[in-house]
Amino acid sequence: MADARVRGYGEIFAAALVxxxxxxxxxxTTMPVAMLVSLRMCFAAGALALVLGLRGxxxxxxxxxxxxxxxxxxxxxxxxxxxxxxxxxxTGVAIAIFTSYLAPVYVAVVAPRLSGERTxxxxxxxxxxALAGMLLILAPSLNGAGLDPGxxxxxxxxxxxxxxxxxxxxxxxRSGMESAGIVFVIAAITAVVLLPSGLAQxxxxxxxxxxxxxxxxxxxxxxxxxxxxxxxxxxxVKVQHASxxxxxxxxxxxxYALFLLGQRPSAWTVAGGVLIVVAGFVVVALGKAEExxxx
Length: 295
Prior knowledge:
The protein is mainly α. Helices cover 81% and strands 0% of the residues. It has one domain (2-294). It has 13 helices and no strands.
């Protein structure tokens, strides 16, 4: 059991660490968001189709309920990505990130009712520390930030959809489906859902070699690989713990910006990052005891 927990935490940590590069990768692109996300999901589905085909392990949902949950999960992911980018455009990056990263709060409240995972004191303490870290990271950007009601609502919705994504992913993994098969299906659904708006926004000039290459990198590295790792990790740890460890993503983002773009992180970012790392350590170090008590 201990080895399974180590595997789960390791996979989730690795996925969040790699996904911290998304912002930096996107900064190299000029393609409209909907088209970029749809193309990203096309590359993800294509990469996973190759893997699944070579392994002969195509997803086989066990019943209609599982098929329905897969379809809903794809729609939820498309809604999460759309709301998040709307929030960025309408309220700015800082508020969009903060509202969308309220997802662990929603998970802590809802998980006991939907998945039977009780929220113990370790989760509450780690969540408080992680949220404090996020506020420190975003503090310099919050001064004078616009509070457009529509954009704010989109950010909150993005967080709610991400919480739903986590809980649905956990339930699908419990059903016996492999993580790669789950990600293949939801990536294909998301690509199809966002393709019409993407084509409406894009022109032929948007399909440059750089834009397509960045979409491929996003699809293979930060979707096919990391989504599969994250969902597989959910099978071995509590969803509340996974959502808190996911805060490593905004912590690692400034490191990619530093090494690839030469953008130095502020003292606020460093201090906030330390708090988030502490929160992750608390979850990993004390999570086993909490699982034994709160189940």
